[in-house]
Amino acid sequence: MIALIDESRCIDCGACAEACPRTVFDVDVRGRPTIARQADCQTCFLCELYCPADALYVAPDSEAPEAVELEAARPQMGAFRRDHGWGEWADRVPNEHWRMGEIFERARALAATIQTKT
Ligand code: SF4
Ligand code: SF4
Fold first, then answer.
1. Whose CA is nearest to atom 7 of ligand 1?
2. Does any ligand 1 atom lie closer than 6 A to the CB of residue 45?
3. Is residue 12 over pLDDT 90?
Protein backbone atom coordinates (compact mmCIF):
# COMPACT_ATOMS: atom_id res chain seq x y z
CA MET A 1 0.00 0.00 0.00
CA ILE A 2 1.21 3.50 -0.81
CA ALA A 3 3.17 4.67 2.22
CA LEU A 4 4.73 8.04 1.51
CA ILE A 5 5.82 10.75 -0.89
CA ASP A 6 9.27 12.27 -0.45
CA GLU A 7 8.56 16.01 -0.69
CA SER A 8 12.24 16.80 -1.20
CA ARG A 9 12.40 14.66 -4.36
CA CYS A 10 8.97 15.36 -5.86
CA ILE A 11 9.10 17.55 -8.97
CA ASP A 12 5.34 18.21 -9.08
CA CYS A 13 4.81 16.44 -12.39
CA GLY A 14 1.54 14.75 -11.43
CA ALA A 15 2.49 11.51 -13.21
CA CYS A 16 1.66 9.37 -10.16
CA ALA A 17 -1.89 10.73 -10.01
CA GLU A 18 -2.37 10.17 -13.73
CA ALA A 19 -1.12 6.59 -13.50
CA CYS A 20 -3.07 5.62 -10.37
CA PRO A 21 -6.12 3.52 -11.26
CA ARG A 22 -7.76 4.12 -7.85
CA THR A 23 -7.58 7.93 -7.58
CA VAL A 24 -5.55 7.67 -4.40
CA PHE A 25 -3.88 11.07 -4.86
CA ASP A 26 -5.14 14.60 -4.79
CA VAL A 27 -3.02 17.06 -6.75
CA ASP A 28 -2.77 20.76 -5.95
CA VAL A 29 -2.47 23.57 -8.49
CA ARG A 30 1.31 23.13 -8.69
CA GLY A 31 0.94 19.46 -9.56
CA ARG A 32 2.04 18.30 -6.11
CA PRO A 33 0.29 15.13 -4.95
CA THR A 34 -0.89 14.16 -1.50
CA ILE A 35 -2.03 10.70 -0.46
CA ALA A 36 -5.73 11.43 -0.01
CA ARG A 37 -7.32 7.96 -0.10
CA GLN A 38 -4.68 5.54 1.13
CA ALA A 39 -7.19 2.79 1.89
CA ASP A 40 -8.17 2.69 -1.80
CA CYS A 41 -4.62 1.75 -2.85
CA GLN A 42 -4.43 -1.66 -4.53
CA THR A 43 -0.62 -1.92 -4.27
CA CYS A 44 -0.15 -2.07 -8.03
CA PHE A 45 3.11 -0.02 -7.92
CA LEU A 46 2.13 1.96 -11.05
CA CYS A 47 2.83 5.24 -9.26
CA GLU A 48 6.34 4.03 -8.47
CA LEU A 49 6.88 2.99 -12.08
CA TYR A 50 5.77 6.33 -13.49
CA CYS A 51 7.45 8.61 -10.93
CA PRO A 52 10.50 10.05 -12.75
CA ALA A 53 12.02 11.30 -9.50
CA ASP A 54 11.79 8.12 -7.40
CA ALA A 55 9.81 10.12 -4.88
CA LEU A 56 7.26 7.49 -3.87
CA TYR A 57 7.31 4.42 -1.73
CA VAL A 58 4.70 1.66 -1.92
CA ALA A 59 5.00 -0.83 0.93
CA PRO A 60 4.51 -4.47 -0.09
CA ASP A 61 1.66 -5.20 2.34
CA SER A 62 -1.56 -4.78 0.34
CA GLU A 63 -3.87 -5.41 3.29
CA ALA A 64 -2.99 -2.62 5.69
CA PRO A 65 -1.00 0.60 5.76
CA GLU A 66 2.51 0.39 7.19
CA ALA A 67 4.21 3.08 9.23
CA VAL A 68 7.35 3.68 7.18
CA GLU A 69 10.08 6.18 8.06
CA LEU A 70 11.25 8.26 5.12
CA GLU A 71 14.94 7.61 5.80
CA ALA A 72 14.33 3.86 5.97
CA ALA A 73 12.34 3.88 2.70
CA ARG A 74 14.78 6.02 0.68
CA PRO A 75 17.15 3.21 -0.35
CA GLN A 76 14.15 1.31 -1.78
CA MET A 77 12.66 4.22 -3.69
CA GLY A 78 13.17 3.64 -7.41
CA ALA A 79 14.14 -0.01 -6.95
CA PHE A 80 10.86 -1.27 -8.39
CA ARG A 81 11.29 0.90 -11.49
CA ARG A 82 14.90 -0.19 -11.92
CA ASP A 83 14.16 -3.89 -11.40
CA HIS A 84 11.47 -3.77 -14.09
CA GLY A 85 13.79 -2.19 -16.63
CA TRP A 86 11.66 0.94 -16.76
CA GLY A 87 12.72 4.33 -18.13
CA GLU A 88 16.46 4.92 -18.08
CA TRP A 89 17.00 1.30 -16.96
CA ALA A 90 15.45 -0.17 -20.11
CA ASP A 91 18.76 -0.84 -21.88
CA ARG A 92 20.49 -2.26 -18.79
CA VAL A 93 17.92 -4.41 -16.99
CA PRO A 94 16.23 -7.28 -18.82
CA ASN A 95 12.51 -6.94 -18.48
CA GLU A 96 10.97 -10.38 -18.66
CA HIS A 97 7.79 -9.11 -17.00
CA TRP A 98 6.56 -7.41 -20.16
CA ARG A 99 6.55 -10.71 -22.04
CA MET A 100 3.09 -11.08 -20.50
CA GLY A 101 1.93 -8.95 -23.45
CA GLU A 102 1.71 -12.03 -25.68
CA ILE A 103 -0.34 -13.87 -23.09
CA PHE A 104 -2.75 -10.94 -22.68
CA GLU A 105 -3.15 -10.82 -26.46
CA ARG A 106 -4.09 -14.50 -26.58
CA ALA A 107 -6.54 -14.00 -23.70
CA ARG A 108 -8.16 -11.06 -25.52
CA ALA A 109 -8.52 -13.14 -28.69
CA LEU A 110 -10.05 -16.01 -26.72
CA ALA A 111 -12.48 -13.65 -24.95
CA ALA A 112 -13.53 -12.21 -28.33
CA THR A 113 -14.20 -15.73 -29.62
CA ILE A 114 -16.35 -16.55 -26.59
CA GLN A 115 -18.33 -13.29 -26.97
CA THR A 116 -18.99 -14.05 -30.64
CA LYS A 117 -20.44 -17.45 -29.72
CA THR A 118 -22.84 -16.06 -27.06
S1 SF4 B 1 0.19 1.55 -5.77
FE2 SF4 B 1 -1.31 1.69 -7.46
S3 SF4 B 1 -3.28 2.07 -6.46
FE4 SF4 B 1 -1.66 2.46 -4.95
S5 SF4 B 1 -1.32 4.66 -5.05
FE6 SF4 B 1 0.17 3.67 -6.41
S7 SF4 B 1 -0.82 3.64 -8.44
FE8 SF4 B 1 -2.43 4.07 -6.92
S1 SF4 C 1 5.24 11.21 -10.08
FE2 SF4 C 1 6.77 11.52 -8.47
S3 SF4 C 1 7.69 13.48 -8.96
FE4 SF4 C 1 5.78 13.37 -10.10
S5 SF4 C 1 4.25 14.33 -8.76
FE6 SF4 C 1 4.21 12.14 -8.31
S7 SF4 C 1 5.63 11.89 -6.59
FE8 SF4 C 1 6.04 13.89 -7.49
1. 20
2. yes
3. yes
94 near 84, Cβ under 8 Å? no
Q: Who has greater pLDDT, 66 or 117?
A: 66
Residue 11 Cα: closest atom of ligand 2: 3
66 in any annotated domain = yes
Of the listed ligands, the closest to the CA of 2 is 1
Distance between Cα 94 and ligand 2 center (Å): 25
Cα gap 86→49, rounded to integer Å: 7
Domain boundaries, position 53: 2-83
| Residues forming a β-bridge with 27 | 33
Residue 118 has pLDDT above 70, yes or no: no
In a domain, 30, yes or no: yes
Q: Rounded to whole angstroms, how far apart are CA atoms 7 and 28? A: 13
Condensed to tens digits (0 to 9), the pLDDT of residues 21-36 reads 999 999 999 999 999 9
In a domain? residue 67? yes
Output the domain CATH number for residue 20. 3.30.70.20
Output the CA 41–ligand 1 centroid distance in Å. Answer: 5
- pTM beyond 0.85, yes or no: no
| Residue 62 domain flag | yes
